[in-house]
Design a protein that fits this description.
Radius of gyration: 28 Å
Helix content: over 70%
Oligomer: single chain
């Protein structure tokens, strides 16, 4: 069985006996659904997602700190000049 994805949708094609293709597809489906690779890929995805979220949060925290620190420094300079 082959799959071709287009903007309009998904097309499936096969060659040979349809019953044999169905059995092969069922066997592959069952194998992929219960494979350790699937569990590992999900773990990798979740770990990478968390790492990226932490990285982006750190960038936001640094940006906010710099903004607030510069405002505080400006206040201190104005107080020292007065």
């Amino acid at each position: 069985m082959r799959v071709k994805r287009t903007k309009k949708g998904t097309n499936y094609s096969y060659s040979g006996d349809l019953e044999q293709e169905i059995e092969k597809a069922k066997a592959e489906y069952k194998e992929k659904e219960t494979s350790q690779e699937r569990i590992f890929l999900l773990w990798q995805y979740q770990k990478a997602k968390r790492a990226r979220e932490k990285y982006e949060q750190r960038i936001a925290d640094l940006k906010n700190f710099v903004k607030l620190a510069e405002e505080k420094l400006e206040e201190q300079r104005n107080a020292d000049d007065a």
